[in-house]
Structure formats: C-alpha cells, structure tokens
Amino acid sequence: MKALALAEGQDASARAIERVARETSPETARWAFEQWDLRRRAERKFALAREMLFTREALEQANHEAIAAYHASRFPEGAKVADLTCGIGADLIALARRGPAVGFEIDPERAAYARHNLAVSGLHAEVKEENALDHLDDFDYALADPGRRREGRRVSSLDDYQPDPLEIAERCREKRLVGIEGSPMLTDEDLLRLGGCVEFVSFGNECREALLWIGRKAENGVWAVRAGDGQRLARSPMPNLSQSALAFLYEADPAAIRAHALGALAQTHRLLALGDSNGYLTGEEAVASPWLTGYRVLGEFPLRESALRSAVRDLQGTVEIVKSRAKGVDVDRWRKLLTGPGERCLILAAYPIGARIRAVLLAPLTAP
After folding, report:
1. 95 belongs to a structural domain
2. Could you tell me if residue 124 is inside a domain?
3. What is the percent of the chain where pLDDT is above 70?
4. 3-state DSSP assignment of residue 308
5. Burial of 202 from C-beta contacts in 10 A (0-12 / 13-18 / 19+)
6. Taking CA 282 as the corner, what is the angle to CA 203 and CA 319, rounded to the nearest 5 degrees?
7. What is the C-alpha to C-alpha distance for residues 254 and 329, in angstroms, rounded to an integer?
8. 159: Cβ contacts below 8 Å, ≥ 6 apart
9. Helix (H, G, I), strand (E, B), or coil: what is residue 266?
10. What is the reported pLDDT for 147?
C-alpha cells in the first residue's frame, strides 16, 4: 500500500508517476494512480470508496450500496446466502452485513479486492476462487450478477451473459430463493425465458436493473421497486388517455414505466395518460408521490417555433430544460431556440398523439 500513499492527492502526470515508480516500481506506480482514479469514480457508489480497491470493469458493473442493501434485505437474516459472482464485493458486503454469506469469484484479482473491501467495511465472508456453478447444490439462497461487459463494452443479449443466467435459473427452480440481476434493457421475451418474478429496480430516479427471483419463495408477477425504501408497484393495465394536458403534468419514474405499472399510479392519484407519451400522466389536482415528478402546466401548443417563442415571451421566461417522449425531437435545438430574455425558468415537454407532436410549457411543482 506504499504506492497508494505516495500517489494520494496527486495528478497522474508522467513526472508524478515516475516519482512514485522510483520508490516502488513502474507497474506498481501505474496501479496506484489508477486506483485513485477508480476510487474517485466509486465515491458515487460507496461511502468508503477511498479505502477500497477496484478494477475498472468490476466497478462499472458494481451496484450502488443502496441497491446492494435492497438485494440483501430480500433474504432471511439467519440464512447463509451465496454470492455467485461477487466481483469486488459490492453485494457480498451487503449480504455479510445482513448475516452469513460466501462469495465466489474466479478472477484472483477481484477475489483479493473483495476480501480487502470486506475488511474495510469491518465484515467477514469467505471468498472462494472457484466456479459457483460447481457449488449450486450447496445453497438454498443465492444471488448472481452475471457479467454484462466484454472488454469495457456492454453486451445486450442474454445469451452473452457470463455465467449463463438461463442455466442458473433452470438449476435453481427448486431452491428457496435465488436472485439474478440483469439489464432493464433486456426484452420482455428474454425475461420470460428466465421466468419467476421480475422487479425493475429504481434508484436515483433511474431504472437500474431487472432483478429476477427464482425459487419456491419467489412470488409471481412484475413489479417496479424503489431500492431506497422498498416501495413497490405492480404491473397494471394502461390508464385511460387524455388528448391534452390538464392542470398538472407528472413524469413517472423510469422503473414504473418499464414495469408497465402506470395504471396503478393513475388509479391511486386519479390521473390520465397523456396522449401516446408512455410516461407522462396528467390530472386536475396536485399530488405527491415518490414515483412522480410534478409540474404545473402553463400552456399547451403545437410544436412550432413561432407559437412557442411567443408563449415563452408572454410568460417572461426562458426554456432551460427540454424533455421529449416523441421520436425525432432535437431537445438541444429546441432549448437553444427557446432561450429567452426572461428570468422565469420554464420546462418544455413534447409528447406524441397519433401522428402529431404537442408541446407543453411547465413550471416545476415543488409542493402540492
């Protein structure tokens, strides 16, 4: 760890790397500067990032610790859980904080970093440098995050994941509970190939993953779930449509959209789907929900420059943000076109209705 101490707080210039290399070695110096770069990036995911160790690809796939904590919360506290693909230890740390856990990692460097990161967190779990698929019969509870990157690139097909999630799912149907993490960009057809329960996990107002649960304790169905507080929405029929924006417009959480759960939100809050937007809801009353970001509607117009410029001028504002749920709308172009002299911050939302595109000028809704 001497190289890490020498490199701390320094820019990775050729001179700085050479200075650290003189006291360690060129390879160790390059490693230390890369670790500090990765640690800075990891601060968005880990509270103890400045003490942890990473590889670049493993960090990119590693879950935020709040998402890992949600994963761990789904397993009984006293039961031993196997992390079948522990990487640098993000999920394993959360599992070990919950109770007994063991991790499997065939890459020796990642396995070593997982042990280090567990120790940094004051936790212990055995990390085995073995193929987890050879040990599936040893556990009733398990979690897997198959590799979804190859040489720094994301893979989009379920068949390219490693280890094979289809094999894991097939061999774990009679387990008590096994979670398999995947990309929310997987098609519904791919997810149905795995079967079981599907949760689209929201964190930071993003749909972060499709989490599949296999086994006797897995409930059937499709859900949106918030990692921070565990709130859930079930898949539901689409809500009734409104042809135009009402007094308020709401932008649904991406996980609720991906889970096809807008109907549940609309029913609870007496909202309608706005045109063919698949994500915008509208209503006559201000409502509060962690699944919704709300705006007051200031006016609705055709997506035409002259009409919108005039409206922005009348509102004494300037459009700072452009959102679109319609294809072919250049949001940067429209933002530049509608930058005005006024001080009032406006938001433009475009949505399709049939072959037409409509535009709604909005103000943020801070309180109902």
Report:
1. yes
2. yes
3. 98
4. helix
5. buried
6. 75
7. 19
8. none
9. helix
10. 84
Q: Is 150 a domain residue?
A: yes
In angstroms, the Cα distances linking 344 to 23, 139, 287 are: 57, 59, 23
For residue 151, which amino acid is it?
Answer: E
| Residue 176 in this model has a pLDDT that exceeds 90 | yes
CB 97 within 8 A of CB 77: no
Candidates 263, 271, 264; CA nearest to 287 is 271
Beta-bridge partner residues of 364: 295
Report which of residues 150 and 291 the model is more confident about: 291
Give 131's DSSP letter. Answer: -
CA-based radius of gyration for the chain: 24
Q: What is the pLDDT of residue 368?
A: 43
| Co-location of 196 and 251 in the same domain | no
Is residue 129 pLDDT above 90, yes or no? yes
The two structure tokens encoding residue 328: 């072919």
Between CA 239 and CA 270 the distance in angstroms is 10
Segments forming the whole domain that contains residue 267: 241-364
Q: Which letter does DSSP use for residue 147 in this model?
A: B
Pairing state between β 141-144 and 177-182: parallel
CATH number assigned to the domain comprising residue 106: 3.40.50.150
* Full-model pTM: 0.93
How many structural domains are present in the chain? 3
Helix (H, G, I), strand (E, B) or coil at 234: strand
Q: For 259-268, what is each residue's pLDDT tens digit?
A: 999 999 999 9
Q: Which residue has the tokens 């070593």?
A: 112
d(CA 248, CA 262): 16
Are residues 16 and 126 part of one domain?
no
Residue type, 248: F
Q: What is the pLDDT of residues 312-327, one digit of tens each?
A: 999 999 999 999 999 9
Shared-domain flag, residues 34 and 106: no
Token pair listed for 121: 């967190």
- Hey, what are 139's tokens? 């556990």
Q: Note whether 266 and 190 are same-domain residues.
A: no
**Does a structural domain hold residue 53?**
no
Residue 118 and residue 110 in contact, taking contact as beta carbons nearer than 8 Å: no
Between the CA of residue 343 and those of 82, 186, 362, what are the distances in Å? Answer: 56, 43, 14
Q: Are residues 89 and 157 in the same domain?
A: yes
Looking at residue 149, its pLDDT comes to: 64
**Residue that has been written with the tokens 């006293």 in this structure:** 78
* 257 and 121 within one domain: no
